[in-house]
Amino acid sequence: MQHGPAVRRRKLGAELRTLRGRAGLTSGEAARLVGWHQSKVSRIETGASGVKPADVRSLLDAYGVDDAQLRDLLLALAGSCGGHGRDHWWHAYKGVLPPTYRDFISLESQAGAMRTLETSVVPGLLQTPEYARAVTRAAVEGLTEDRLDALVEVRLARQVVLRSHPPLVLSAVLDEAVLRREVGGPEVMARQLERLMEAARLPQVRLQVLPFAAGAHIGVTGPFVIFSFSRTSDLDVVVLDHLTSSLYLERKEDVEAYTEAFNALQFHALSPEDSLDYIAAIGDGA
């Protein structure tokens, strides 16, 4: 269980080590090709030290990696812009966002797919501006209006991943409590339910409701997110949110456990079609 930047370093290093092996090179041979000491290659591969995008580019060139999407992904993990055509716009908010949130947005911007269980609030990618403002105000005490405005801007800017090319594929399971909790008042909640129904009709969004009638379920311990990357499952990561930080689970067995849990939640949840009807009924006061 690691914080985001450490996870990214380790994952980047592991992938570079794999690519070196495929190229038939020892760490010493790779170092000589790029003009480094062997110890630098070793530190990068173990995640012991950070690595600049330019260094990653040099290694990828040395290893003969010409897969553009894989290069973009690995360069993004090293802090470069690009990959899926999604720029690192959040750098403009560096003074507003805590490092764990910036790292979450970075992963979200580069992932090919995102699976999320939400038990309390609507996923950020599907929130209306009014709902986002009400949630942010409640979650973070003592916000000035300027800082609140900035955080809401960030929440809404994140949603561009659903409209990018290719878009992020979002699969969300929402506990019924998410739909029943009146965030921001009746009018705000009514518009939010409409927004959920609009989003559920998008081809890149799969939305399912887990009704109260389903009883206790594997997700009662709390929400989670699974990020998946199109070129390699070795980079997949689970994110758990806590009050003051986010934790990242990168071990293959952890990712597999949460993937199985999410599959079980989808099985017990209403179908996407029935979920739409369920949300509409709640919006009508049922």
From TrEMBL:
It holds the Pfam family DUF5753. Signal peptide: none annotated. Transmembrane segments: none annotated. This is Helix-turn-helix domain-containing protein. InterPro entries: Cro/C1-type_HTH, DUF5753, Lambda_DNA-bd_dom_sf. It comes from the Bacteria. Residues 16-70 form the HTH cro/C1-type domain.
